[in-house]
Each structure stands twice: as structure tokens, then as C-alpha cells.
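Please check this today:
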Amino acid sequence: MDNPYLAPDAVLTAPAADDITYEPSIFSLHGRIGRIRYLAYSFALSLIVLVIGGVFSAIVVGVTQNPAVAMIVLGIAIYIPSFALAFIMAKRRLNDLDHSGWMSLLMLIPLANVILGLYMVFAAGTPTTNRFGPRPVKNSRAIVIFGLAMPVFFCVIGILAAIAIPAYQSYVMRAKAAEIQQTIRP
């Protein structure tokens, strides 16, 4: 029938072919992640690595006879998995940008890694399904807050450390000088 006044008979509830989404998992090796989720996952994993590294460092220094060698071994043991996780996150972010994961090897080249990092943080992902799969679902409020707050948190911690560490070293030197001065006087 060619009646232009009939209601359309298309199914309007099914998603369009390009509107398919999926819920990305933090521990997945495949798929796509957007900018905010990339920041949130990367900073969350960095925070976990820092906490675990700090706890193990305190244990190793207190237990071993030669803490320098133990710290080197511990540093390598922590660095290798965190480096692998950074490559996985970069691969997934590059897949969202419709680039191969092999492009993440640019992270090994000085200056190119800075440019690649800025590109991954600021470039918009493919808005529809690409050759690496469907687009991820929209970020939840928690991921947005975490993804945007963690860089600020790390900057504040860095600034506080830059102020506190020299002040503490100055305090320790003055305390030692006062202790020596008290031992000299009868």
C-alpha cells in the first residue's frame, strides 16, 4: 500500500546497528575505553601500585640485611606488572581511537611518549562501532569524578611532597645539630 498517512512499521525499540554499546571491564585485555575511563583506570592502578609498593618497601627495609639490593629487586618486581598494565590501558584507548594497539610501543620512545599520552587523553574516540568493537557505554558519575579528581589529587600530593620533604630534612638537620650541641655542653 502506498498510503502516506499510515504509521511506519519499523521496530523503533531496537538499537541501530551503530548504536551498540558494551560495559568495559577494568581487567579486560580487549575492547575500547574512552578518555575519562582511561584516566580513571590508569590513576586507580597507579594508586594501587603505589600503596602496594610502599607497604612492601617498608617491610623489605625492616626485614633485610641489605635493603638496597632488596629495593632494586622489589622495584623491578613492581615495575614490570605496572608497565604491562600501562600498555594494556594504552592499547584499549588506542582501539577507541581506531588505531592498532601496536601504536602503544611509542610509549618506549622519549618525546613520542609525551605526544602519544597527550593524544590519548585529549583526542575523542570513534563515536560509533569501529573495527575494534562497539563503543563503551557512557561513564557513570563515579568514573567521571574519579577520572577528573585523581590527576588533581596526584598534583596536590606532589606539591605537598615538594614542600614537606625539604622542610623535614631541614628539621632533621637542626635536630641533629641541637643534639650534638647538647652532648658537647656539660
Observations:
- The chain has one domain: 24-154.
